[in-house]
């Protein structure tokens, strides 16, 4: 399987997860607010510290985003493109944002596909620099006793989300992250096995080092931005088996979608997940 060399020491623990009790969320984002402020308000009103939010539709202007890119700085194995700001309002086709805390305040990490005047584009939305132009309703999964906390990561030199327990205990779902060079599908299965989850819905965003789809399509870009559009875990022969259907954008702006090959899709920098246990 492909490997990417990051500048720092390789962490021994290749994934992490904490349990939480999921709170279904649905709230309105009001015009004039930045996306991060609108989502932070929705989560705070529900008493939730972190989780995931899903976007579909809505109008945003200005809208700013970046795509994956090579790094000119040897301290990083990959980086981001210039900032893009499409002209006119932008509609989100589908996107998801991991919601957590950075520098003591709410923070969003968002990947998705959007419809611009120039056509479909995809990447990493800059939520503090993107504004709600028309009221939009979003859904999500929040957690009161757990969240994602942005922390310096010595392996990659990035500041990355880590799942953390805030207070008390929870059950019914996991907040998780996977480190570089781990196959994302196998990592989801290992996390579920470790926590006794036999059937689940899987949500999340992250980056992969190249992508291999079950239909034979290959994306050679070593840095990508990924959104899980449909993910599941079920029990096969007594063990959890995951199926992940994703959207991905490469360093040239190419957008691809499909089901991942199990065992041949390694994480590039990080992958953040919310795994909801469901009845078998």
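Q: What amino acid sequence fits the structure above?
A:
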């Amino acid at each position: 399987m492909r490997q990417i060399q990051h500048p720092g020491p390789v962490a021994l623990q290749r994934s992490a997860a904490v349990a939480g009790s999921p709170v279904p969320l649905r709230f309105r984002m009001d015009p004039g607010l930045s996306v991060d402020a609108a989502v932070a308000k929705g989560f705070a009103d529900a008493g939730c510290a972190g989780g995931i939010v899903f976007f579909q539709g809505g109008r945003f202007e200005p809208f700013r985003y970046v795509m994956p890119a090579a790094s000119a700085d040897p301290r990083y194995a990959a980086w981001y493109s210039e900032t893009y700001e499409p002209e006119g309002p932008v509609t989100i086709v589908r996107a998801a944002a991991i919601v957590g805390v950075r520098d003591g305040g709410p923070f969003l990490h968002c990947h998705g596909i959007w419809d611009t005047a120039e056509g479909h584009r995809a990447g990493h939305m800059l939520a503090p620099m993107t504004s709600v132009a028309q009221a939009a309703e979003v859904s999500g999964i929040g957690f009161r006793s757990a969240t994602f906390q942005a922390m310096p990561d010595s392996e990659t030199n990035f500041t990355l989300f880590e799942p953390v327990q805030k207070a008390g205990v929870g059950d019914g779902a996991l907040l998780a992250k996977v480190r570089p060079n781990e196959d994302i599908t196998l990592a989801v299965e290992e996390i579920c096995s470790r926590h006794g989850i036999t059937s689940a819905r899987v949500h999340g965003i992250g980056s992969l080092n190249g992508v291999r789809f079950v239909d034979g399509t290959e994306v050679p870009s070593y840095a990508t931005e990924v959104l899980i559009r449909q993910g599941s875990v079920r029990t096969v022969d007594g063990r959890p088996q995951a199926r992940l259907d994703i959207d991905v954008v490469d360093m040239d702006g190419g957008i691809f979608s499909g089901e991942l090959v199990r065992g041949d899709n390694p994480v590039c920098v990080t992958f953040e997940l919310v795994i909801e246990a469901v009845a078998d």
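Q: And what stands out in the fold?
A: The longest helix spans residues 35-45.
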